[in-house]
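Researcher: I'm preparing a figure for a lab meeting and need a structural model of a single chain. I don't have an experimental structure, so a prediction will have to do for now. The sequence is pasted below. Please return the structure as tokens so I can convert it later.
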Amino acid sequence: MRLFRLITGVDDSEFCHRVTQALNKGWELSGPPTLTYDAAKGATICGQAVIKDVEGEYSPDMKLGDY
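Model: Understood. Here is the structure written out token by token.
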């Protein structure tokens, strides 16, 4: 089965570490990152889609970050 996650967060080193952690757990980038500006927070928000093929069947109660 193929899993999909969208990692989002403020454009800072923590966001980069979260994406790096996913890559090191076997996730692969799916397309380019996305950026938007949140005027209420006064911050740039990043998003990066990642995918991963794993054994088993999909269930909506899966915690994707554990894979």
